[in-house]
From TrEMBL:
It comes from Variovorax ginsengisoli. The active site is at 14, 94. Pfam families: Asparaginase, Asparaginase_C. Belongs to the asparaginase 1 family. Keywords: Hydrolase, Signal. It comes from the Bacteria. This is Asparaginase. SMART domains: Asparaginase. Residues 218-327 form the Asparaginase/glutaminase C-terminal domain. InterPro entries: AsnASE_II, Asp/glu_Ase-like_sf, Asparaginase/glutaminase-like, Asparaginase/glutaminase_AS1, Asparaginase/glutaminase_AS2, Asparaginase_C, L-asparaginase_C, L-asparaginase_N. Residues 5-196 form the L-asparaginase N-terminal domain.
């Protein structure tokens, strides 16, 4: 057939989940249904693409590890180089989907469409959202116009940038949002595009998964009223290479924590100043003198995505000016 060839890499999550009854939208087991069963349950896919599945993992995404990320990205990279593969869909739990999407957009060199998709309800639930989300994902992966836009996410009829999008609600189907807006929408299998990403991704990235075999330990410390230095000190003592500080507001840091972070930096650990606030971005040298302390600001990256970029960047550089450039560009 002349239909495009799409590979579905399945990793688990709620899109492969099953509950005891149709009313169980929140009480269910994730990562139960194998990929071949997901594909067999959606005969509409065969009109859009020649689809085949690979079961890479079968886990809930909160349990994914750095090693899993490397395995998945290397598989995506290898498939993207095959002439008989036109697009790749990754079924994934929604809890950390945004982190995998960002990792892939930073490290996989391809102009072919790569789409991550999940669901908020298991397939056994009333008004399950996985089937349409997956149908949309395969439609986007099978479209020439979806290439070269970085790794994408299809949830709730929207096409989101994998860089920008985050899970913002844990109980609704319209869970994935970006403060910069979706790139487009899919309606009845057709893509409608409205904007394109401007940050570096995939083909323009200086990072390449084919030459990354390990990720350095990078952890996150949260800022809040009454915060003590206990967690930061324990993390610093654990051998981390960088610490993402998920500060309050504009990435503000409690006065008693400032010297603790200065000490962390003096001990050779990179400090990335981000914010726990979902939207907005952190301004360099506002709130804290980042130049003076040799800290890096996370731009518009949420702490969990700032951690991903820091791990990837550290495979190439430990220089704080370079790391700051990377945060502005990606
Ligand atoms: N909706 C989901 O997929 C949540 C699930 N805990 C996961 O991330 O695997």
């Amino acid at each position: 057939q002349s239909l495009p060839n799409v590979v579905i890499l399945a990793t688990g999550g709620t899109i492969a989940g099953a509950g005891a009854s149709a009313v169980n939208s929140a009480t269910y087991s994730a990562a139960k249904v194998p990929v071949d069963k997901l594909i067999a349950g959606l005969p509409e896919l065969s009109k859009v693409a020649n689809v085949r599945g690979e079961q890479v993992f079968q886990v809930a995404s909160e349990s994914l590890t750095n090693d899993n990320l490397l395995t998945l990205a290397k598989r995506v990279s290898a498939l993207s180089k095959q002439p008989d593969v036109d697009g790749i869909v990754i079924t994934h739990g929604t809890d950390t989907l945004e982190e995998t999407a960002y990792f892939l957009t930073l490290t996989v060199h391809t102009a072919k469409p790569i789409i991550l998709v999940g669901s908020m309800r298991p397939g056994t639930a009333l008004s399950a959202d996985g089937a349409l989300n997956l149908f949309n994902a395969v439609n986007v992966a099978a479209s020439k116009d979806a290439g070269g836009r970085g790794v994408l996410v299809t949830m709730n009829d929207e096409i989101q940038s994998g860089r920008d999008v985050s899970k913002t609600v844990n109980i609704k189907t319209e869970a994935f949002k970006s403060q910069w807006g979706p790139l487009g929408m899919i309606v009845e299998g057709r893509n409608y595009w409205f904007r394109a990403p401007v940050k570096r991704h995939t083909m323009q990235s200086e990072f390449d998964i084919d030459s990354i075999d390990a990720l350095p330990p990078v952890e996150i410390a949260l800022g809040y009223e009454g915060v003590a230095p206990t967690a930061i000190n324990a993390l610093a003592a654990s051998g981390i290479k960088a610490l993402v500080h998920a500060g309050t507001g504009n990435g503000s840091v409690a006065d008693r924590i400032v010297p603790v972070l200065q000490k962390v930096r003096a001990d050779g650990i990179l400090v990335i100043r981000s914010s726990r606030v979902p939207d907005g971005f952190v301004i360099r040298n506002a709130e804290q003198p980042d130049d003076k302390y040799d800290w890096v600001v996370a731009h518009d990256m949420r702490p969990q995505k700032a951690r991903i970029l820091t791990m990837v960047a550290l495979t190439k550089t430990k220089d704080t000016k370079e790391l700051q450039r990377i945060f502005w560009e990606y």
